[in-house]
Amino acid sequence: MKSMTGYGRASVGFGSDTITIQVSSVNRKTLDLTVKLPEEWAALEPAINEKSRRHASRGKVHVQVELTGAAGSRQEVWDEAAAVETLDRLAAFASRQGVVFGPTPELLWDIARSQRKASNFPSMEEAQEVVLTALESALRAFVAMRAKEGEALLVDFIGRLELLRRQVDLIAARAPLVPPIYRDQLLLRLRTAELELKVDDERVLKELALFADRCDVTEELTRLRSHLEQFTALLKSDGEIGRKSEFILQEIGREVNTIGSKANDLTISRAVIELKNELERIREQIANVE
After folding, report:
1. DSSP string spanning 268-290?
2. Mean pLDDT, rounded, for 138-143
3. pTM value?
4. CATH label, 6-72+123-146, candidates 3.30.230, 4.10.410, 3.60.110, 3.30.70
């Protein structure tokens, strides 16, 4: 089992600079992968996407690639001599046209930027191997954290499933007692109303039979136990389990609701409430599972 919450980071030296990659993720029903990297390396995004998708099938995953150091500082570097020459030529042109030339700061900035020297930022070809190597390291740390979080979630789920089974066992033990209790209550009400009907009276037997059929939860308990076993096996399996577990939890909830509607017994109703509370906690936690 793996959690959808995770973080991994790796840094690799690149000449006098450092390439740092961070991979992080939070909950999301589907895989939502985003990549942020220097625009000069934009062509690396498909390769980064492909590698990242091998390690995550659900969650909002973000990969950030940074270059720090002299090359990554992106300080504006321009050819001052060329900028001065351009400014002088503009001044001479304005003089020949009889125009008063008063350069503004904005004009000076535009001229300076037009005379930028070639960028010293590393090319994609130079950085590709180092970036992908760093990405692998970051992804390993990312997967390890998600696995560790998943182990903690599994322990929590196993404990909660045991609580569910206890409540199911309580209901199973209590259910056969409900018809006899109803029979005694029915006869008591008949005596209180001074109606002389014996327990073997056809009308009494028919009422008891109908009641026993209405409150019978044998099939629901059988299906509920089966769903709990399926859910336990799924939690201990490999691969993606989030979507499948949500379906099984839905089926478990359906059986619990049916038992609650058929209960006609305070003890069973209380157990149903406990089942619903634990199911809600499991649903909240399962949203963190891949």
Report:
1. HHHHHHHHHHHHHHHHHHHTTB-
2. 96
3. 0.69
4. 3.30.230
